[in-house]
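Milestone M4 deliverable, item 7.
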Amino acid sequence: MTEQEHDAAETGSSTRSGFVALIGATNAGKSTLVNRLVGAKVSIVSHKVQTTRAIVRGIAIHDNAQIVFMDTPGIFKPRRRLDRAMVTSAWGGAKDADQIMFLIDSERGLKGDAEAILEGLKEVHQPKILVLNKVDRVKPEDLLKLAAAANEVVKFERTFMISALNGSGCEDVLDYLSKALPEGPWYYPEDQISDLPMRQLAAEITREKLFLRLHQELPYSSHVETEKWEERKDGSVRIEQVIYVERDSQKKIALGKNGEAIKAISMASRKELSEILEQPVHLFLFVKVRENWGDDPERFREMGLEFPR
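Output delivered:
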């Protein structure tokens, strides 16, 4: 029994737990919000659309509840096999959850993908809440109109207005979910913040640094895998990762002139990994060309996605 579960038993209250799926259009701020609600970085963030590929679970404790947030890939109109796998993963995550949180970028409103997702939510029967993000950038009267328009299409249990970036309104979301989730024991140890294996999280962090450095030049189809992880006697860890790209021209971009790009990416990733692992990190990055890796079932399994036929 965890400390919180013991305290709950002592006071006569019961623990609650459940899964909350965040869905929304690309770049609505889902990963930023998950990191904010969990209170630690569990999902990578970049300016590039479709950064999140598979479902990432971030675990938050609030009052007597353990809330497992499922950061799903952004939902958009798929064009390629990888796109289809990501969108299928997002809707699958929504249908497996106890609660669904639909996140809308308030500046963009119900345009394009957001409108299509809202229509799709009609077929999903779990309880749903509406979360309007980036509200500090929009006039109050426009926010009210947006909330009313969304609620006309789908019956939301509650509507929240937040800023994932500065945390405004996020505590209200946690308060609501901690009471709305079903009673039951916790799924994870109380000190666990994600179900992502450390090797995979390390690869995701390097992929984030890759996108932050080269998001204008490099296609989002580039992929990072952690190939070696060695705990050393001096307390440090040696990590070897491979950045896979689809063409030689992309390899040159990833390396940069005189290797400047790959050095900067390695330095940024190593710094963050050292902070997360709380130990010195020796990171070695390699760039390899793997043509049409987006059609390789093994790569999809590596990312936690089903390979669409």
